[in-house]
Amino acid sequence: MKIQITKKDSAHILSASLSVLAVTAIGWSLIGEAALIILPALSTFLILFGLMEVYRRLYEEHRNSRRAQDYQRKQEYRQIESLLSLFFTLKPDFPLPDTRGWAAAPDLLKKIAEVIFMEKPAFIVEAGSGVSTLVMAYCLKHLGRGKVVSLEHDAKYATINQKLILLHGLEQVATIVHAPLREVEISGQKWLWYNTERLNIEQPIDLLVVDGPPSHIQKLSRYPALPLLYRYLDAKSKIILDDGHREDERNTVALWEREFSPITSEFLDTEKGAFVLHKNDRR
User: What is the pTM of this model?
Assistant: First the structure.
């Protein structure tokens, strides 16, 4: 670990040194030569106090750094483990696009794959396309049933991702719909969300995956997904929302639970955080 003396540390040492000089001057004026006996011990104490404060800060910094490094190592191991699990399970025919960053992290992709294999959804709708679209399509291909439709507001990425679907031979189970953002009204408030005119929904949505639009579009950017698509959900539908560590997404889930009872949520401690929501309608 690189030890660096900060301005605050220098201030502690300077303060201790000035205190020694001040006490020496005052002591000499008050008690004369007797100060030469008392002041060295006091001076040593003050200097040690300043150095101990520097040591305390460095020790705390070192401990926090070790914790951060340990957490990062665990995260890296989890992502590698999740990615290997996906590769061995799905056996993609061609390389998959990069994960993490703007794209979904491997641990979330693994969770989505687990949900698909357990629930066997017939129809999946995704808000925001990418590597997750390919993973879901491969899962459905392995199951031998189902279809995923992914909404993408950016024409460039819609084209890129549709070409990837064709490259992997998944066009029978996956479709990228270019759906530019447009203004919609929900409960008297205006929002931007995907234009769903080209989204043909002829059956219930068994799984809704929400990973768009981007957060910079508006406050609570992903909130409109449920108000606009709730009527298409099945009695046992599931919703997966990425980026659960962000305040906007936590607030979005709270609003969904309040407005769409009996929706309940489960938080997943993935790299970016995620929520799995259950409709739980047994009627």
Answer: 0.76
Confirm if 54 and 9 have CB atoms less than 8 A apart. Answer: yes
Residue 98 has pLDDT above 80, yes or no: yes
The 3 state secondary structure assigned to the chain is CCCCCCHHHHHHHHHHHHHHHHHHHHHHHHHHHHHHHHHHHHHHHHHHHHHHHHHHHHHHHHHHHHHHHHHHHHHHHHHHHHHHHHHHHHCCCCCCCCCCCCCCCHHHHHHHHHHHHHHCCCEEEEECCCHHHHHHHHHHHHHCCCEEEEEECCHHHHHHHHHHHHHCCCCCCEEEEECCEEEEEECCEEEEEECHHHCCCCCCEEEEEECCCCHHHCCCCCCCHHHHHHHHEEEEEEEEEECCCCHHHHHHHHHHHHHCCCCEEEEECCCCCEEEEECCCCC
Per-residue pLDDT of 112-158, as tens digits, reads 999 999 999 999 999 999 999 999 999 999 999 999 999 999 999 99
Q: Is the pLDDT of residue 165 over 50?
A: yes
Q: Which residues pair with 205 in a beta bridge?
A: 233
